[in-house]
Amino acid sequence: MTQFKKILEIFYDNQIEFVLIGGLAAVIHGSASATEDVDLSYDRNLENTKKIVKTLNPYHVRLRGAEDVPFIFDEQTFKHSVNLTLMTDLGAIDLLGEIPGYESYDLILADSDTVLLYDKKFKVLSLDGLIKNKKATGRNKDLKQLDELEELRKMQQQKSNRSEK
Amino acid sequence: MDILSNYSDQGIDLSLLKHKLNLTPTQRLEDFMTFMSFIDDLRKAKIMNKYDPIQKDSGNILR
Questions:
Q1: A107–chain B Cβ distance below 8 A for any pair
Q2: Which of A24, A67, A87, B44 has the most CB within a 10 Å radius?
Q3: ipTM value for the complex
Q4: What whole-number distance in Å separates Cα of residue A160 and Cα of residue B26?
């Protein structure tokens, strides 16, 4: 099983610039959907990619779905690939430099919420951001989850309206 | 959590979402990891087979 908490912790502890997106971000917002990987949008600057390499390399990074293919995970990897679908000893991690619906990491960051997890502050793509991303992706599995995310947004709005009264 | 679930027109379990919204983000993550661990145990025991709710790219929503 993917070690969700551990992956978030090592990224946090190594001060990597990232925004949690995808299924796990939806879970943080209250989704009841399941996911088996951790999707992270990351800042593509050299310093940050060096930190990612240093953080993940002890966990035997492989290309997910092609794990027999020889693969060297270093700063060069990021020069050739923007989005990486990886398998590690901690489980499946997707490192996404670009995601549908957003033109840059800064825009993703601007659309993120600061969320307290285990007393640490993480950047998590907002519910509106997740909906925007799912709509732009347009894959069947994403569109299916849209109903749930939109229902969550409606319920959150009702909750905040009640607390304002 | 409500014992009787109510569902949206799209088949979303609203009671479950209400329950999740009453948790803190950390509790939601813990809840999810407990569930995933349970699924993992069932897989190891080879109970899930074709009824595995998290089939690759299925996008199935667990309720």
A1: no
A2: A24
A3: 0.93
A4: 20
